[in-house]
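[09:14] KT: can someone run the structure on this one? pasting the chain below
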Amino acid sequence: MGEVERTESAFPTAFAAQPDMTQMLFNPFLPEVHQNPYPHYRRLRETAPIHQPFPGAYMLSRHRDVEGLLRNPHVSSDRRKSPMYEIFLASLPDPQRIRDIPPSMLFLDPPEHKRLRGLVNKAFTARVVSSMRPRVQELVTEILDEVADRGSFDVVADLAYPIPVTVICDLFGVPQEDRKQVKEWSLDLIYTLDPMVAGDRMEKAAEAGMAFREYLRGLVASRRGGSGDDFISALTHAEEKGEQLTDEEIVSMCTLLLIAGHETTSGLIGNGLLALGRHPDQLRDLRDDPSIIRNAVEELLRFDSPVQLTGRLVLEPFEIDGVQIEPGNDVITLLGGANHDPEVFPDPERLDLRRPAGEHVAFGGGIHFCLGAPLARLEGQIAIGELVSRFPNLEVDTEGAVLRDTITLRGLTKLPATAA
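[09:31] RB: done, structure tokens below
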């Protein structure tokens, strides 16, 4: 095991510990569920909205339950508080190495979370995100110029991946010659968010985690005391009430941003264009009325969410619709299921770019609401909006789409298209 795998997992510890999940009412590892989880979410909402797949874990699929759980002060994101955590560590060859790595703020509770979030917010301001618009626009234009010359392209390889990884590397101040390596690390690290991964995948993720953290340590050390205007330099200078981020805290934050910021934005762009390809009437509507792009991106986030689920550990007993959930239990919030709840989104299986979609939970909720949501929205709006506007006869080969084999993050590895 490496440095950022299951200690940084979006799944509850109890879920990951189960040896046999073949009899589960909802099993995300089954091929048919992985390919299209939404009918299975519907079955859960209708038959077992507060579902206990096995002792120690619950699944929530209704919007009101998911949103309530994400805002519940009696649950934890810190996996170290789980009764299963020490058992998990004991199974590792070098458990102390895991203990020594500070978790990113995604996996911390107050007051530690509040301290880190406050310091990071000083570096990742609305002004910083807004200032990146010209760069994103420039990048999209360059990519679409190349697409125009070729005619055919791959939405994922040529658009969905290059944009966010370039933006993240710009944000971090990563030298041009190192960016290919950073992208490769990112592709390996996304598996660390899944609970059970094949041995070779996990080994590669472990190696990527160690290499990327070591690389980031070098960047942080080179920026300490400097006057750079990149994000890492800003993090080294961020201060509140006399406190600053340590080097290892900055490394953990940048690792989180690479995985969460890069891969989820790629998912938004790829999943969004696949959905538009499958709904040509909505593609035409966006082409004919580019002014709806902001709302369109929100609906695309809702319709096929890049992050499908997350988990919390129960610290104090609470009740949901008469079901008592005791401390020590893990609760899985099915974000994709909540975003298809007909109580909130009428006719949820219908893609409607003009639907008021502001209540979706694609970016989570509560104190852990996605820090990078404004940047993801910016990149999605420019990438999808410009592609559709520039190529009025855009054709997406929906039959050629290839789904990534990850569970927590839902995205594509391939989506052929023709621009004309």
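[09:33] KT: thanks! The two ends are 47 Å apart (CA to CA).
[09:34] RB: yep, looked fine to me
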